[in-house]
């Protein structure tokens, strides 16, 4: 069965924006879904809104899930600082404090709920195992396990029409994602990867990347290694 | 490894309350977790609060997850009526409109997040496959698949200390659950199973069960088949 409608998890960062662009390129009616989980970098939700508009998503939903009430991560607790100035080679070894407990499980479960309601055939998620921050829920074996959950725990699965869980960036380097993003017309300057962004410099501009957190390091490295001009505004 | 701390999903109904009582009986430090997902029967959250107190849960959290913004179920959309007066033998055949898309996946994912933050060894969930409403996400094969997700997508799993996902009611009949509940001191009259409850009759009393939805039918049938007096207040 060829997919015709998809739910695309859209955080507002480079990877998920590229993922949305892929779904649109694949000819799907792409419904973007962002999760407001109480993240420190809430500005990414505004970035997601802009990206969804530019890339002609069929719709854009923001679903609230209060993970801040649980805490346990630099991204959901003000008591834990976002690590800065780590060397790129440090990133991805061990699980950093920016890991949000079970975040991708939570996000994929909400995406599964949305896909069930919208009768979508596919779910797109922009996880990336190669240039990742070392999160357990970005690994291929995790996605494979979630695929079984989405098949066994839903009406569509019972009806023999399971969702096609697609992670098209899984095996790409950040450089590969940067190239792909530009080739697909992703409004890169509008995307926000930073965990600890600064306010926008103009009322219509995007939030400013700190330039020092792991997400900024990986983003910078991607453009540099791809030999592409990086359109991002970094503070540091 | 023997478990010492658990997260217990507590809706406030008979099954999850019994599940909490089992975790306490098993000697665990039991942290109750309720999910406010925009359910029509929000009164169950108040029931959960009372049950957690009576059963001496170590803590009780209510985490908001806005599934009402997605709709698609009689329990999260005012546009879909809760089915009433179905014969007990009708219940469990096919998936009813009270099915909330991917609800147990969402709840278990939040429980996994909480277990990760609390460093809990076990997650208890009161799903029941025998006298269930016919929901796909109450089946043993779904739970088995989620077990893999919780192992592969978390820090504890990576560290070789995966959560023990326990569903002690899975193979029990509703009659068996009713018996167990009473033997464990569950405050049955305080629990709320109903999908469409009426207001409490006194300021300190529990909400009144409609007596006509599938959840009420299964609850009544359980006490009747167990030969036990049913302490529930039903309207119809």
Description:
The structure is a homodimer of 236-residue chains. Chain A has 236 residues and is of the alpha/beta class. The first copy, chain A, has a single domain, classed as Rossmann fold, CATH 3.40.50. The first copy, chain A, has helices at 14-25, 43-54, 103-118, 140-152, 155-158, 174-183, 214-226, and strands at residues 5-9, 29-36, 59-64, 122-124, 164-166. In chain A, helix 1 packs across helix 6 and helix 6 (174-183) packs across helix 7. Chain A is globular and about 50 Å long. The interface between A and B is large, with 44 and 44 residues.
Search tags:
Rossmann fold; alpha/beta; 5 strands; homodimer; 236 residues; 11% strand; 5-stranded parallel sheet
Radius of gyration of chain A (Å): 17 Å
Largest sheet composition of chain A: 5 strands, parallel
Helix content of chain A: 25-40%
How many angstroms does the end-to-end distance of chain A come to? 48 Å
CATH topology of chain A: Rossmann fold
Query: What is the CATH top level name of chain A?
Result: Alpha Beta
CATH homology-level superfamily of chain A: HUPs
Sequence of strands across the biggest β-sheet of chain A = 3-2-1-4-5
Based on DSSP secondary structure assignment, what is the total number of beta strands of chain A?
A: 5
Largest interface: A-B, 44 and 44 residues
Q: Give the amount of beta strand of chain A, in percent.
A: 5-15%
